[in-house]
Structure formats: structure tokens, C-alpha cells
């Protein structure tokens, strides 16, 4: 009898990513656990990457595809810089990612992308993509293993869904940075508690617009000096920081 | 679970418990009713939620009514939540190899020897494996969403009105991300003095 064999080129490596934009900042976060089935491959595999001083990309799904995709996006951004002597604007990176994903429409990169950063007009932005390049600019987005746990929580806490503003007031369109960071950390601790593929570590990238008042951020930074690292390369432009926090390892 | 849709959540508060569900009955993706009750009073202090296959919801609610009545007559007292949880468990396990497609959720107050009341919640899988949680339990098609929101919103020792707000927000925001749940919601907050029942206005899409 004829036997059928098949090679499956895809794996699902767990983990979750999340991004929220503010008026003049953007926060992009991801846990650092990488798993295959019930096994943990590593407790530290970054899913969030600095592309430029105003763009950060989070990639979740099949880790091999994710790493290759980020490598190719970075390569295209380097070529752009050599050709145009400046970093590619955020909305152009978003369109580039769409075309790169759709180019592999019939053998897709098995990844969900979330791009966060600062737009040319100085506003914080989040772009989310599906594996074949369909994309949208939003205020917040969760993706990955715990998307179903985190996204309804964000609907409630960021978009104020199902909440009624006090008489004579309206819900804020953008939340302040300290509130956003608290919501991001709470989202990941909750997801870690209830989802086996989420945990170990949390990397939070914070992109601040050019000339932004740093008072609120410095207060947070002062409390987490040993956890926070600046990644900014250029002078007097946008600034990027990364905070590394622990999540439960069980 | 996805044949008719629906979700239930129960939470513990300070000297009180709450149980809430959506009101949808569907045939796969098609909505049929926006007033399908899946939470039933068992005694004055015990409520039972039955998300799952609608035909089994009706069968089991009658079956539990019969068995609780028989218990009350034989024992000459009302059933306590712990005993009722085990009654649910054994009723479901009787059908171990041809189960009812239901994931029951219970909420009630247990009378202590001192006369005080202790909050009690429990959930079970479709063959009667009980889960006695100290904080909250979820079931139904929006269970993963309910877990995520509840884990973020719930805190210990909530007063009845705060517990009502917490369970309502948890349910509404979870079912709004679930195609199989929604179409209105109902909440019961059980306190030693009374049961507060409110029907919530929610998204109808």
C-alpha cells in the first residue's frame, strides 16, 4: 500500500506581543519564552527588535520565519539609508512590510507583526499585520498565543469599551506613559498566570518623540535604573529605551 | 460548545458571590434568541450556570431540579453548595462515555456553624471534574477571553457593588470579542440578605 509522507515546514513557537501608542510615544512589548509543544526551548529569545531610532518591530509566531523576516527588513532599511541618507519613515516601513509579506503570499512567513514607533508628524503609532501583509494603524494591539486573553482587556482599559464617562466628561483619546506601562505589565503578568506559553521574561521597548518632555519617563526610569537601557543612536532625535522585567518561569 | 454558543463566569467577593452569563442562543454562526437563560436558581443561595449544548441545558436544569427536590425531601433541609457541586459532578459522571455537552458553573453561600455565610464557587468539565477556585471560574465559548479579563480586573474582598461592576465588565468585554457569545447579559450577585439580579445592556452585534 502506498504510504504518504509529508514535511511540515512550520512550527508554532508560542509567546505573545503587544503594542500601545500614546500622543507622543509608543510602547512595544513581548515576552521572551520560546516553546515548542510543551517544551521550553529557551527562556530568552527576543521577539521585539529596534529597526531605527523611531521604529520597533515585534514578531510572533514561527520563530525561524520571524528572525529571517526581521533580518530582511533590517537589510532593506540599510539599503534605504545608503540610498537616501536618512532613516525610512514609519508609515513607509509599514508599507514595506506589507509588500515583503505579500511577496510570499503562497508560502507565507508564519508570523504576526506589530510595528510601533513615531510617525513623521511626531505622533505615536502602532501598525498591526497579518501573515500575508494586510495591515492597519491602531492605538493598541495584542498578538500571539495569549491574544485572546489580552485583547479584550485592552479594549476595556485603552479604548474604555463598555465604560461610560462621568457626566460632562469624555474618555481620553491617549493615555499617559505611566498608565500605558502599568497596563502592559499587568497584561503580561495576567497572560503568564493563565497561559503556559507565556512567561520567563518581558522586554518593553519605549519610543519617545523628538523633544518630548521626559519628566514622567525619568520618574519611571529612576525606579528601574538597573532594568532600563537606552538604545538611541542619533543625537537630538527620537529616543528608544528598553526595560527588561522578570515574569514567572513556571 | 460552538453549536449553540454562550458563556458563564462566577466570582468571589467579600461575604458575597456573583454569577453572570450572556443571553445568546445560536445555531453555529446564526443568532436565534437574545433571551436564552442559562443561569438557574437552585436554592435561595445557590445559582447554577449551564453553558453548552442548549438541549442539554434544558435537560440538566430539569434533572437537577428533580434531584435537589429529592434531596430536600429525604434530608428535610436545603442542600448546601458543596453537596450540590458533588451532585452535579456525579450526575455528569454517570454519562462518562456519552456525556452531556455542558460545562457547569456554580455560585453560592455556605452557612457556617457560627451562622455566618462563606462564599462558594465551583466549575466542572463536561464529565464532572470539579474545580473549586478561590477567585473566579469561567466556562463557555468565551472562556479564554474571560480568563484574560478576569485575571486583570479581579481583586480579593470586593464589596457586592464593586463585585457587580467587576463581573459585568469582565463578561461584557470578553463576549464582545467572541462571535458565539453576547446578545445581552445577566448578572446575579448573591449576598446573605438578598440576590441582586440585573440585565445588562450590551452590544447586539
UniProtKB/TrEMBL annotation, chain A:
Q: Name one GO biological process term.
A: proteolysis involved in protein catabolic process
| CC annotations in GO | cytoplasm; nucleus; proteasome core complex, beta-subunit complex
Cross-referenced PROSITE patterns = PROTEASOME_BETA_1, PROTEASOME_BETA_2
What InterPro entries does the database record attribute to this sequence?
Ntn_hydrolases_N, Proteasome_bsu_CS, Proteasome_sua/b, Proteasome_suB-type
Q: State the Pfam families in the record.
A: Proteasome
Q: Where in the cell is it found?
A: Cytoplasm; Nucleus
Q: Does the keyword Nucleus apply?
A: yes
Q: Which UniProt keywords apply?
A: Cytoplasm, Nucleus, Proteasome
Subunit-level organization: The 26S proteasome consists of a 20S proteasome core and two 19S regulatory subunits. The 20S proteasome core is composed of 28 subunits that are arranged in four stacked rings, resulting in a barrel-shaped structure. The two end rings are each formed by seven alpha subunits, and the two central rings are each formed by seven beta subunits. The catalytic chamber with the active sites is on the inside of the barrel.
Indicate the family of this protein: Belongs to the peptidase T1B family.
General function of this protein: Component of the proteasome, a multicatalytic proteinase complex which is characterized by its ability to cleave peptides with Arg, Phe, Tyr, Leu, and Glu adjacent to the leaving group at neutral or slightly basic pH. The proteasome has an ATP-dependent proteolytic activity.
This chain belongs to which protein, by name? Proteasome subunit beta
What organism is this sequence from? Thelephora terrestris
Automatic annotation (TrEMBL), chain B:
Family, similarity comment: Belongs to the peptidase T1B family.
Instruction: Tell me the function of this protein.
Output: Component of the proteasome, a multicatalytic proteinase complex which is characterized by its ability to cleave peptides with Arg, Phe, Tyr, Leu, and Glu adjacent to the leaving group at neutral or slightly basic pH. The proteasome has an ATP-dependent proteolytic activity.
Q: Where is the protein localized?
A: Cytoplasm; Nucleus
What name does this protein carry?
Proteasome subunit beta
Q: Which Gene Ontology BP annotations are present?
A: proteasome-mediated ubiquitin-dependent protein catabolic process
Q: Which PANTHER family match?
A: METALLOPROTEASE TLDD, PROTEASOME SUBUNIT BETA TYPE-3
Top-level division of the source organism's lineage: Eukaryota
Any matching Pfam family:
Proteasome
Please give the start and end residues of each transmembrane region: none
Indicate the quaternary assembly: The 26S proteasome consists of a 20S proteasome core and two 19S regulatory subunits. The 20S proteasome core is composed of 28 subunits that are arranged in four stacked rings, resulting in a barrel-shaped structure. The two end rings are each formed by seven alpha subunits, and the two central rings are each formed by seven beta subunits. The catalytic chamber with the active sites is on the inside of the barrel. Component of the proteasome complex.
The record's keywords, sorted A to Z, are:
Cytoplasm, Nucleus, Proteasome
Q: Which organism is it from?
A: Thelephora terrestris
Q: What are the record's GO terms for cellular component?
A: cytoplasm; nucleus; proteasome core complex, beta-subunit complex
Primary location class: cytoplasm
| InterPro entries, per the entry | Ntn_hydrolases_N, Proteasome_beta_3, Proteasome_bsu_CS, Proteasome_sua/b, Proteasome_suB-type
Amino acid at each position: 500500500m502506498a504510504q504518504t509522507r509529508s514535511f511540515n515546514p512550520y512550527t508554532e513557537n508560542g509567546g505573545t506581543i503587544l503594542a500601545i501608542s500614546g500622543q507622543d510615544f509608543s510602547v512595544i512589548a513581548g515576552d521572551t519564552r520560546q516553546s515548542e509543544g510543551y517544551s521550553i526551548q529557551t527562556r530568552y529569545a527576543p521577539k521585539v527588535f529596534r529597526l531605527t531610532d523611531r521604529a520597533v518591530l515585534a514578531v510572533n509566531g514561527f520563530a525561524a520565519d520571524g528572525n529571517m523576516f526581521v533580518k530582511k527588513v533590517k537589510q532593506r532599511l540599510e539599503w534605504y539609508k545608503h540610498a537616501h541618507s536618512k532613516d525610512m519613515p514609519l508609515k513607509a516601513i509599514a508599507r514595506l512590510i506589507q509588500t515583503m509579506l505579500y511577496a510570499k503570499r503562497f508560502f507565507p512567513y508564519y508570523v504576526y507583526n506589530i510595528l510601533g514607533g513615531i510617525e513623521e508628524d511626531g505622533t505615536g503609532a502602532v501598525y498591526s499585520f497579518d501573515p500575508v501583509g494586510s495591515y492597519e494603524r491602531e492605538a493598541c494591539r495584542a498578538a500571539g498565543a495569549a491574544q485572546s486573553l489580552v485583547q479584550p482587556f485592552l479594549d476595556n482599559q485603552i479604548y474604555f469599551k463598555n465604560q461610560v464617562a462621568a457626566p460632562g466628561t469624555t474618555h481620553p483619546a491617549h493615555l499617559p506613559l505611566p498608565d500605558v506601562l502599568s497596563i502592559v505589565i499587568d497584561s503580561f503578568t495576567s497572560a503568564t498566570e493563565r497561559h503556559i506559553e507565556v512567561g520567563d521574561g518581558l522586554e518593553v521597548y519605549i519610543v519617545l518623540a523628538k523633544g518630548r518632555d521626559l519628566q514622567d519617563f525619568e520618574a519611571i526610569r529612576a525606579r528601574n535604573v538597573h532594568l532600563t537601557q537606552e538604545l538611541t543612536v542619533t543625537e537630538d532625535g527620537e529616543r528608544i529605551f528598553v526595560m527588561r522585567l522578570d515574569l514567572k518561569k513556571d | 460548545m460552538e453549536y449553540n454558543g454562550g458563556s458563564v463566569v462566577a466570582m468571589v467577593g467579600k461575604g458575597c458571590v456573583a454569577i453572570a452569563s450572556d443571553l445568546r442562543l445560536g445555531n453555529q454562526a446564526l443568532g436565534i434568541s437574545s433571551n436564552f437563560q442559562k443561569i438557574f436558581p437552585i436554592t435561595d443561595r445557590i445559582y447554577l450556570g449551564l453553558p453548552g449544548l442548549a438541549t442539554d441545558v434544558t435537560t440538566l436544569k430539569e434533572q437537577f431540579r428533580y434531584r435537589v427536590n429529592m434531596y430536600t425531601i429525604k434530608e428535610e433541609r436545603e442542600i448546601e453548595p458543596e453537596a450540590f457541586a458533588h451532585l452535579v459532578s456525579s450526575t455528569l459522571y454517570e454519562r462518562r462515555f456519552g456525556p452531556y455537552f455542558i460545562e457547569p458553573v456554580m455560585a453560592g453561600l455556605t452557612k457556617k456553624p457560627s451562622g455566618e455565610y462563606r462564599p462558594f464557587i465551583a466549575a466542572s468539565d463536561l464529565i464532572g471534574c470539579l474545580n473549586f477556585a478561590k477567585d473566579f471560574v469561567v466556562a463557555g465559548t468565551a472562556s479564554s477571553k474571560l480568563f484574560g479579563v478576569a485575571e486583570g480586573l479581579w481583586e480579593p474582598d470586593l464589596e457586592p457593588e464593586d463585585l457587580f461592576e467587576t463581573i459585568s465588565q469582565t463578561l461584557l468585554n470578553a463576549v464582545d470579542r467572541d462571535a458565539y457569545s453576547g446578545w445581552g447579559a445577566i448578572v446575579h450577585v448573591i449576598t446573605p440578605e438578598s440576590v441582586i439580579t440585573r440585565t445588562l445592556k450590551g452590544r447586539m452585534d
